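Regression test attached.
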Amino acid sequence: MMTIKTPVQSETPLHQPHDLGPSGRSSKAKGWFKQSWRLLALPLLLFISIPLLALFQRTSLADFISTLNQFQVIQAINLSIVTSLATVIMTLAAGTPVAYLLAQRRFRFYRFVDTIIDLPTVLPPSVAGVALLMAFGRMGLFGPLLTVVGINIPFTVVAVVMAQTFIAAPLYVKAATIGFSSIDSELKQAAALDGANRWQIFRYVILPLSWTALLSGIMMTWARALGEFGATIIFAGNFPGRTQTMPLAIYIGFEIDLNVALTLSIIMICLSFLTLVVVKGILHRQLDANYGFTTISNA
Amino acid sequence: MRSKFVSLMLLIVLLAAAACSPQATPAAPTTAPTQAAAQPASGGKTLTVLAAASLTESFTEMGKTFEAQNPGVKVNFSFAGAQQLAQQLGSGADADVFASASPKYMDAAVTANRVNKADAQVFVRNRLTVIYPKANPGQLKELKDLAKSGLKIDLEDKSVPAGQYSLDFLDKAVKDPGFDPQFKANVLKNVVSYEDNVKSVVTKVSLGEVDAGIVYVTDVTADAAQKINKLDIPDALNTVATYPIAPISNSKNADLARAFVALVMSADGQALMGKYGFIPAAGK
């Protein structure tokens, strides 16, 4: 790992920007040319940012507020918040052990488990919806069993949470795995030598050292759960107040009342943006901290 | 090395199992009608037809007939809820013909300046029916049973023409002395989901995930009839849906678009629609 900010490192001048060519000093034209490649980054940046800004431009504050007051919109927002938080809790409870397992790396089915966990992020969510229906639907794999017990999953809030967890939990698991595996195993061994049991090692060594990774992972899972659409509409259906989350209300609202779609879209953009700001803030802090750590050990 | 091999094998087995499982792919409802006008046929022309989801089977055959009559022409369909197609037309979607399940959304296309009002003509009529899975988990015997508490009913959103017609049916039933005044309220209590097009309802009923749904009689195709049964809605309570069709005013293939509409309105076209359960309506 290369340290960038430290004066200690200046004796190894690997990073000498703008001075790679044999000609040494670059002419003014060449300098412009070297900078001009940055323009190539512009099209994609504009392509992504302009439509998002266009959403804001299409609605007025008055429209936004009056739409926000509509019952169906409030219902959708409430439902989205409740279900996505439930997804976060489910993911923390069920995903942490998986991440811990993956962080060990040395076990028989590592590749297999790793691939299974990655699958939902690659699959189209509609596939997840159909798959969930085939497994937990009334006529699905576990349907007869669930019916006997009197549990019915499709078209309920539980189905919404399951769809979100299926799609979003892997984001946390991946982030937590990285967090767990970045911890030096000597630290764990040292704690064990001092008589700490497994729980104490987890609580007092692993958790404090990996919480940034866990937090950024959980934020990503939360944001993804908020945005889940395809699996939800297939597995949980679309019923206002019960299974109609914000993305579903946007989809249905788009055809009836554009203001509903615009208002909810703006909320989604703001929430997603905030999530990313927080996650990136945490990650940068952690990176800075890591570099500081390296510097000390180097010096 | 060995563990890699083992996990690879497991993955293959898993994928194979998924591919072989008998119901792995229920007919996916047309939720993403995006490939309209995507690829013009090499050499020949491509006609893009936006059609209500309930026209899926009949218009697919109509397209084949049209292609046979016009060598070199490829007909591309985008089947979705009529409300969605009207919205796409309003947003400037490239298309040549629009067939709606309700005059309401043809009017929307007229308002959006995509269709000349004079060009729109009714080509078929359709009726609603109640459908339920063959196994009849809700033990439906008559229409009144729809109000039984605990039943699971799947409807279309009211923005979808079939969804609005379903509500109309409930309104008429409430006024009918044969039905309980609370019939509509009780039926709506049983609704578990409002789908965005009629084919999603057919899929969920044929999967047995719900006890009943309300769709067009034409949605009970020979294929679907293997999994679902119908419960007729009498004429007095039924809403007869009228389907208008029109060429898009700024179509790049105006001649072909008119030819397609002419085929639909012709005796052959009407016979084809009749074969799929529609009520022919050309010239009426």
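Expected vs. actual: identical. The radius of gyration of chain A is 24 Å.
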